[in-house]
């Protein structure tokens, strides 16, 4: 119920389409990518440790995972921000 109110509420939809279309700045995408990657990397670290039993190997896997997926997520976010669909 609350989610539906947030989606359809006129109070929340005070910005015009033109303002919303460009509201996602690159710095916000970087912050979102970093916060998500911290969560994802912790998951990768735990899973890698459970599978290998070696914390150094698990940390190496998680480190590579952090960098590659951070870059991929940033460009994924920027590409989605350029799409008009769903805005």
TrEMBL record:
InterPro entries: DUF2061_membrane (IPR018638). This is DUF2061 domain-containing protein. It comes from the Bacteria. Residues 30-81 form the DUF2061 domain.
């Amino acid at each position: 119920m609350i989610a539906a109110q947030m989606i359809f509420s006129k109070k929340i939809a005070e910005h015009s389409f033109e303002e919303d279309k460009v509201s996602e700045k690159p710095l916000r995408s970087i912050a979102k990518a970093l916060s998500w990657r911290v969560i994802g990397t912790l998951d990768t670290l735990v899973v890698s440790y459970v599978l290998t039993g070696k914390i150094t190997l698990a940390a190496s896997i998680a480190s590579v995972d952090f960098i590659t997926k951070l870059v991929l997520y940033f460009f994924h976010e920027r590409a989605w921000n350029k799409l008009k669909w769903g805005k």
